[in-house]
Amino acid sequence: MLSLHQIDKAVGTNGTHRETEKQVPISDEKSALVTTELPNSTDALDRLKQARRLLYISHLFSQFSEVAWQFCLILFLAAFANYGSLILVSTYGLVSGITVCLTGSRAGRFIDGSNRLFVAQRFIWTENVSVLIATLFCYILLEKGKTSNDVVYTAEEHPAWSYWFRSRLDGVPLDAVSVTMLIGIHLLGSIARILDSGFVVAIERDWIVVMSKLASPTYGSSSSHSDSCMPDEAERSWLSTTNVTMKQIDLSCKVVAPAVAGFFIAAFDDGTDPRHGGDLSGAAVLVGLVNASALIVEYICTARIYTLIPDLATKAPPRPSSRGNLHEMNLDNPSEIPTIGCGMCKVTIPESLEIYFEQSVAPGGLALSLLYLNALTFGALMTAYLVWRGMRLEAVGVWRGVSSAVGLLGTFAYSLSMKYFRVETTGMWSIAVQFLCLSVSYISLFVVDYNTSLSMLIGGVCASRVGLWVFDIAITQLMQEYIPSDVRGVVGGVQQSLNAFFGLFSFILGIVIPNPEDFPIYVAAGYGSVGLAMLLYTFGIYTRKNLLVVP
Which of 16, 242, 278, 456 could form a disulfide with 146 if both were Cys (CB 3.0 to 4.6 A apart)? Predict the structure, then answer.
């Protein structure tokens, strides 16, 4: 991890800043020009350093609480079904994915059209309160599970169709109170996820770009002050350093939070209780306390950053709809209504999606979203699968942490690569490395020996994290550089929707094929999605790298 001293050096201060002068017009009515003094460069850089420190602190609390919540929630959902089915894990992933998919662009338009501080603080409050209520429901269900009796369905007792349906709910509590609580957990968890996605878009795709303008040696001049102009080398360097450090915080939390949570949960549930999860209620209380702490820290830090960077108070107005009111369109002229398909199969293209694909870096974003088809991560399905394979909870947490620790190498690899290559080239080699590493996991499907197969599966997934996170940072920076300011929220929201859309497929498989024995099907699907993403990036971004422009 970089020290704060090393991080701040990247801003580019050399101890000597000259006060220069510029010519600016007083008003539209007066053509006379006056001489005015530029803002103090040292003061701007000092404020930028303070704001970035607060950004890192806020991000640390946000990510630690989010990772701890998501990891524990997976185990809670698995515990509700006595670890015998992936059904609750899959339904939660499906519901939350659909929510993000359907509301991502709306959240993006809210970001583009509202005051930055108002947006950020509303996201923080609502997300954390949703998590707190959801953890309360988890606590109630876990306490209730101590006295509940399991119901086992057999084919002899029910018709074939009924048995198929009920067998997928085997072990899931189906009384009225439990079902209500489970629905509440699904809905509140989904709300928290869309708000977390919106907060990420607001901070990483907008706030950070505005903050980077203060790193420019020409900050304060009329040409550099525009939020829509292409970044200069100082801004690119600041963005690169900040993106890398933010990702290091992400991955550090993914190392520490699951391991801490796994050992803490093991203190409540040692695996000897056949009812599993009956003693996890204490972990639910801890998760709630962590999120309450994160709410306070995030709220204070965000307000302080907004005060330190006055440019955050001004923003370009959101781009007006190019289609206008539907009633004002000439519906008799099909050319005015963007569609895809032919004949009776034409489908109207949502305007937000149209804006997204107008961006020259859209193929890169689409390639990134395809990676969400990949179940070869230490996410919900693979975590539940490894528990089913017999791994202890603390071991799963450790391996998940190891995977993230290996991914940390990717952040250093990105910094090194950016010293010698363009961001487009860095993205190209990183997606190729990920594909090669996951080839090992795919080959594990054909290995008979149990231990060897499991080792290849986990080893390939862990090694692939280097390429994954380098590629993730590369796409983030491409979007920061090439997306105009008036549509950052919309494009970022659509990106989150696409990520969720492709992520739905693995959870749909988990619902249709919930038996953990069928996990190899997920492996094959994930491997193919990464290969497709590599081809899309190669021909959509890398071979066109000299043609990328800001629309």
Answer: 278
Structural contact between residues 188 and 131, judged by C-beta atoms closer than 8 angstroms: yes
Q: Shortest CA distance to 468 belongs to which of 258, 254, 189?
A: 254
- pTM of the full predicted structure? 0.74
Of the candidates 164, 9, 85, the one whose C-alpha atom is nearest the C-alpha of residue 514 is 85
Q: What is the pLDDT of residue 229?
A: 58
DSSP per-residue string spanning 505-519: HHHHHHHHS--GGGH
pLDDT of residue 91: 83
Residues constituting the chain = 551
Identify the CA nearest to 416 among candidates 241, 543, 239, 233: 241
Q: Give the residues of the chain that fall short of pLDDT 50.
A: 1-40, 151-155, 161, 223-225, 275-277, 325-337, 344-345
The whole-angstrom distance between residue 39's C-alpha and the CA centroid of its chain comes to 36
* Residue where the block lists tokens 């928290």: 192
Indicate the residue type of 516: P
**What sign results for the dihedral spanned by CA atoms 200, 508, 374, 425?**
negative
- Asked whether the beta carbons of 468 and 384 are under 8 A apart, the reply is no
Q: What is the CA radius of gyration of the chain?
A: 25
Yes or no: say if 311 and 210 are a contact pair by the CB < 8 Å rule. yes
- The closest of 461, 332, 480, 342 to 404, measured between CA atoms, is 461
Tokens of 439: 């080839």
| Contact (Cβ atoms closer than 8 angstroms) between residue 206 and residue 239 | no
Angle at alpha carbon of residue 83, lines to 80 and 86, rounded to 5°:
90
What Å distances lie between residue 378 and 41, 53, 400, 524, CA to CA? 45, 30, 6, 16
Q: Work out the burial of residue 177: count CB atoms within 10 Å of its CB; fewer than 13 is exposed, 13-18 middle, 19 or more buried.
A: exposed
- Which one, of 403, 411, 363, 373, lies nearest residue 386 by Cα? 403
Farthest-apart Cα atoms in the chain, separation: 92
Distance from C-alpha of 261 to C-alpha of 70, rounded to nearest angstrom? 11
What's the confidence (pLDDT) of residue 457? Answer: 83
From CA 139, how far away is CA 98, in angstroms rounded?
25
Q: What are the tens digits of pLDDT across the range 112-133?
A: 888 999 999 999 999 999 999 9
Q: Any idea what DSSP says for residue 517? A: G
